[in-house]
Each structure stands twice: as C-alpha cells, then as structure tokens.
Amino acid sequence: MLDTIFFYLFALLVVGGGILTITRSSAVHSAICLIGSLVGVAGLYLLLHAEFLFAVQIVLYIGGIMVLFLFVIMLVNLDEAARERQFNGQWWLALACVVVVGLQIAWFMRKGAGAFKLAPAAAAAASAAKGNTEAIADALFSEYLLPFEIASVLLLVAVVGSVVMAKKRI
Amino acid sequence: MNPISQYYTATDHFVLVPAIMLALFGCAILLLDTWIIPNPSQRKWLLPVFVLPGLGLTGFALWRQQAFLAASGSAEITAFQGALTVDGFSLFFNWVFLIASLIVALVSYKYLEIEGEHHGEYYGLILLAQSGMFFLATGTDLVTLFIGLELMALCFYILVGFLRTDKRSNEAAMKYLILGAFSSGFLAYGFSLLYGMTGSTKLRDIASTLAMRDAWDPMVFLAMATTAVGLLFKISAVPFHMWAPDAYEGAPTTVTAYLSVASKAASFAFLLRIFMGPLAASRASWEPLLSIVAILTMTVGNLAAISQNNVKRLLAYSSISHAGYMLLGLIAGNPTGIKGVSVYVLVYVFMNLGAFLVVVALRRKDLLGEDVEDLAGLIHRSPGYAILMLVFLLSLAGIPPTAGFLGKYYIFLSLVETGHYLLAVVGTLYVAVAVYYYFRLVRSMFQTDASVTEPLATSLGLRVSLAASAALTLAIGIYPEPFLRLAQSSLTR
Amino acid sequence: MTGVPLSWYLILSALLFALGVAGFLFRRNIITVFMSIELMLNAVNLSFVAFSYQLKQVNGHIFTFFVMVVAAAEAAVGLAIILTVFKNRETLNVDEVNSLKN
From the list C62, C67, C84, which residue is nearest B164 (CB)? Predict the structure, then answer.
C-alpha cells in the first residue's frame, strides 16, 4: 500500500516535472523542473530496489549534468534568448507523437502486466543474497567488462571534444 | 598463451587487439601533438605519417584473425561471453573502415592547413571513431553495440564541428548532435523493450526468444519500430535524413568524405546485425515498412539532388539515395542481397570518397570550391582530376564498366530472385534520374568558359589516394572476381 | 515486493518518452531541446530498471548506467558546441540558425 502511494507521488513528480520542462518559456525554469522530474525518477529507482542507480542519478545526473546545463544557460545571453519565440509551428507533429504514445498506453492498460510473456527469471537467487551495488559491481567487472572499458574511451573523447570545441587555441 | 584472467582470456585479447591498437594510437597522437612535435612545419607531415603504423598494426591484427578463421575452419570466434563475434561479416566491414580511415588520414593535411585547423586531435578522433566502428561491426551485445555507436557518433560530432571559427561548421555539428542524440534515445528505447521481452542483452539469446513470438505481436512491433527509427536515422534514410545535407555541407570536406562512407558503412553493419539477427523472425512486419522507407529514400534523395547547386549538398542527397539502394539488399534478404550490400558498401567507399576528394582538391585559400560552377572548365585546368571525377560520377550513377554498376547489379538481382519486382523497377527508374544530376556536374566540368583558370594545386597524399580510389573503382568494375570473393566471405556468419 | 505492477512503470516510461519527443519537436530554444532529450533518456532508463526488477537481474541496471555515461558525455560535448555556436552568432533559436539552407 505504501509502495503504491509512493509510486503515485513520484510518478506525479516525474510527469509534472516533465510537462513543465517542455512548456516553461524560461530555460532556467525548465532546468529546475527537469531536476524535479529527475528526482522523481530517482525515487522510482529506490522503489525498484536499484539503490546504486538512485545514487548515480542524484550525483551524476542532477549534480553533474544538470549543473552543467545551468552553467551554460547562465553563460549564454539569457535575456536575449528569453525574448525569442519559444515554440515552433510543429505542434501537429508533437500532437501526433503524443497520440501514438497514448494508443500505446491504452494498449498497456488493457493488457496489463500480461502483455509481457517474460523470460523466466532463472538467476533469481544469485543476486538476491547480495546487495544491489555489489551485484552491479560483479556484473560490471565480469560480464560487462568490455563496455566498461569502451566507456572510458568514450569519456576521453568527450573530454577532448569539449576542449577542442570550447578552447580558443588548441 | 595463458589466460590473463577469467574475464579477459587470451581469446578475448586476440579479438580485441584491433580496437586496442586504434585507441592506443588515437591517444598517442594526442600526446605527440602536445609534447613531442617541436615546430609547426614538422607537424604537417608527422601527424598523418604517425597514423600509418596505427592503421598498419590494426590491419595486421585483423589479418591474423582472418588467418585464424581460415586455418581453424570455424565460422566465428566469440569473445567476452558473446559480446564480440569475429566472423567474415565483421572482418569485411573492418577492412572497409580501415581503408576509409587510411585514405582520409592521408588527404587531410593540406585542406586543414588551408582552414587553419591542423591539429593532432583530428587524427586522434579519426582513429577513435574507427575503434567505435570496430565495436559496431563486431559487437553482438546490446550494451557493447550501444556504447560503440555512441563512441563513433561522439567522435563525428566533434569532427563535423572541427572548424571552430566557421559558422557553418558549428551549425552542422549542433544539428548533427541534436538529431543524433534524439535518434540514440529511440534506439535505446527499442533496446529496452528488446531486453524486457527476452531478459538478455546478447543478440543470440534475443533472437532465439523472439523467434518464438509472433511478428505482429504489438510489443515486438513496438520494439522493432523504435529500434528501426534509431538505426534509420544513422544511415540517413528518409524521413529521418534531415541532418545529412546540413551536416555534410557544413563539415570540413575531408570529414564529410569520412562521414559519408565510414559512418554509413558502420551503421549498415549495425543495421544488418540487428535485422538479420534478433529481428530476423519478425521479417513479416518490417519488410513492408522498410520497403516504403527505401522507396521514399530513393525518391527524396534523387529528386532533391537535382536542384542542388552546392556539390557537397548534391553528394549528400546522392548518398541518401545510395542508402536506399543498400536497404533494398536487406529487404531482399537472401544471400545474394546481403552479398549485394557488402559489394555496394565496398564500391561506395571508393567512389564516394573519390568524388569528395575532388571537392577537397578544389579548395584553396580564397575559394571554397563547393559550388557546381567551381567545377567549370576543370577539364582544361586539370584534365587528370576531371577524368577521375568522371570515373567516380559514372560509378555513382551505376554505369558499366565501373564498380558502381556491379553493386547495383547484385542488389537488383537479389530483388528479382526474391520476387520484389516493383522495388527493382522503382530502383532502376531512379538510376535514370541519378544519371541526370551527375551529368550536370560532368557538363560543368567540360564547359569552356571558366572563371578560374589555374590548375589545382594538391598534396601528394591526395593525389595518391585519388589515383588509388579511381584505379580500384575501375578494377572492381572490370575484374570483379577477387572482390566478389571478399564480399562472399562476409556471408559466413 | 512492491505491489505496483510492471505495466504501470512502463506506462509512466512511455509517457515520459512521449513528453521528451514532444518537447524535442515543439521547442525552439536549443537548450530546452537538449533537456527534452534528457527526458527521453530517463524514460529509457526507467523502463530498463523496471524490466530488470521484474526479471530479477542487474543487466538492465548496467545498461542504465551506460546510458547515463553516454548522456553525460553527450551533454558535455553538446553544450560545448552550443557555446561555440552562441559565440559566433548570438542566438539559440533553432529556426534562426540556418546559414546551411540554400
């Protein structure tokens, strides 16, 4: 019961934050609302027993990415940007995609959880004994060692790229 | 060889060496540029030359893998618990990437000096992008594929915006990045549904689980559709092509050349892995969808190319239409079709790179050299370049005896074999349209009244690469057997 | 065990994804467009974690983790590019950044 209440609470935060993000005309307001939405997603991670991702979501997404966004919003000329027209004429496209997703949701509603003939959870017991962070670490450094290493190259590229783009003289 | 650890065995290492070499040399060039090169005049030739051992060692590692496969008689080597699979398919595409990187690394220095942006980062990013492509062609795990794709795409975002003081380059990078990130979102959503339905991130497990489900199962369809949107963005198929003309026009021309061949080839490798693997069972639902996309792609690509006055933009639309032809091979789906796509990709690398290299050659200090008029009178100024351009354009149009004909031939053959007569007819009709706009360029080259009369001044690397591309374009067309065997090897998977 | 069924999470994820897509198509300010992409990626993450919970695996958590890494890398490069664009032309309106059209 408590779970359901929390789910609704966080879901409200996620959707409300999301709607405000795409409708507020000021970029700073949008960013703040997005942070709200991200906090909601983090809460849902907790409900789903993904404690590690909850921490990463707060530290990396909200503490890292969103602060970067706010920095850039502050750096560029905000007053000028705020005076420009904020919405383009493609509302029909946006509407169409919302309708498509609406149909998808309706379908989920009708089928409920039965929509997923899920593969049997074979290794259920293995991860249950360990904590979430421990289980993730195990998987990350055994089965997913390779993507982890590629990610290090990816981050190097991101660093090099940001320097190339933003520095006056390389 | 002793296993290094349980999770990084000797086999894993053997499979990963090409990517390690690329990443290592990519980083080494960054360091070299900062610390070791003392004066700018050495930089001009030292940087491109330093790429050569990196690509050489990568090629050597690939060659060893090929030799191992041939000697052991097995069809594939799997590594990292099924996250990477080396087979004929992956090796074929890796060779294609290697050729593209080699040519682009050799031709760039003069162009970048003119633009005033000759930095080591350029070469480093080319090698790192190629390591991303390695994972796209070799990966058989959703996580590896996704992060490999992002590695490649991130390198390209930066390369497209490499001319930092040029407004057009900035804009191109911004549009490419925004739309690229948007398509990655779709792709990841599709992947999440694939994972949810099957409980695995390995393509093989996903394929076996999905095979038990109906192709029109709404969940499978949704996963297929979102994955397809993400992938079609990457190969610039209509209606997800809008980034391509802008990115191609604004990027440095050498990067445009690289983007149009290597990124497209890698995305096709990815597309084939997904559609011939996990989604093969739901062919009934994606075949009509992709047929429509292919027809639209050929239509928009060819018709929009007619009215372009910027050569890079024209070639961008032409490359969109080529993506449509390659999709036809996937739609046919029989061995001839897949072989057709492989041949097409190989041929496309030479002819499209060649055409862009001529545009690179046209660039000089006071002239962008991107308009159709800038080609005017090329036959009188530099007859050699004009003849080479003619070869590339004939090949792009698909006229025998050039290589382009061969690529189209196998695609159409596979369509006829599998009974897709309508698609074959539409594809053939658009060849006529393509001939029309390619010959606009040819007419411009052969006209007499040119505003500029000096011959082109180009670098040694550019001349060698152009000659090699043209020679191969003709060679594949005239004596195709060895190249067909190479393409045939991509089928063993 | 939580009493909330999987499908609710998936609906929420689909809704968030749709909001992201709608924002992407709807907005003109490039930074807001970028934020819409973050919404989409969060929808993806949510559905991965929900599936992962249902399947009692951590594979989905791993994918989510990598999506976050990718999002961070993309945001860093993307915002650097946006800054360069702004330095050179002083506007962030998508429709006015159009010197590439003939």
Answer: C84
Chain B positions contacting chain A at CB under 8 Å are: 6-8, 12, 16, 23, 27, 30, 80-81, 83-84, 119, 121, 124-125, 128, 131-132, 135, 141, 143-144, 147-148, 150-151, 154-155, 157-158, 161-162, 164, 173, 196-200, 209, 213, 218-219, 222
Residues of chain A short of pLDDT 70, as ranges, are: 77-91, 108-129, 170
Closest Cα to residue B255, out of B113, B125, B366, B134?
B125
Residue A74: its pLDDT value, please? Answer: 86
Give residues with Cβ within 8 angstroms of B320, minimum separation 6: B236, B237, B238, B241, B244, B245, B297, B300, B301, B304
Could you report the per-residue pLDDT of B292-322, keeping only the tens digit for each? 999 999 999 999 999 898 999 999 999 999 9
Query: b/e map of C67-81 (b: 16 or more CB within 10 Å)?
Result: bbbbbbbbbbbbbbb
Torsion on CA atoms B326, B327, B328, B331, rounded to nearest 10: 140
Residue B134 CA neighbour count, 13 Å, CB half: 27
Hey, are the CB atoms on C92 and A76 less than 8 Å from each other? yes
Per-residue pLDDT tens over the stretch B403-448: 999 999 999 999 999 999 999 999 999 999 999 999 988 988 888 6
Q: Which of B141, B163, B178, B368 to mutate to test the interface with C (most CBs of C within 10 A)?
A: B178
User: How close, in Å, is residue A88 to chain B by CA atoms?
Assistant: 16
Task: Read off the pLDDT of residues A119-150 as tens digits, 9 standing for 90 and up.
Answer: 454 444 444 557 788 899 988 988 899 999 99
Cα–Cα distance, B347 to B351 (Å, whole number): 6
What's the gap in Å between the CA of A146 and the closest CA on chain B? 7
Residues 6+ apart with CB under 8 A from B431: B397, B398, B408
Q: Taking a C-beta distance cutoff of 8 angstroms, is the pair A120, B85 a contact?
A: no
Give A1-83's CATH code, choosing from 1.25.40.10, 3.30.420.40, 3.30.40.10, 1.20.120.1200.
1.20.120.1200
Residue ranges of domains in chain C: 27-90
- Determine the distance from the C-alpha atom of residue C59 to the mean position of all C-alpha atoms in its chain, rounded to a whole number: 20
Q: Is pTM, for the whole model, over 0.90?
A: yes
- Residues B54-78, mean pLDDT to the nearest whole number: 92
Chain C contact set for A101 (CB, 8 A) = 14-15, 17-18, 21
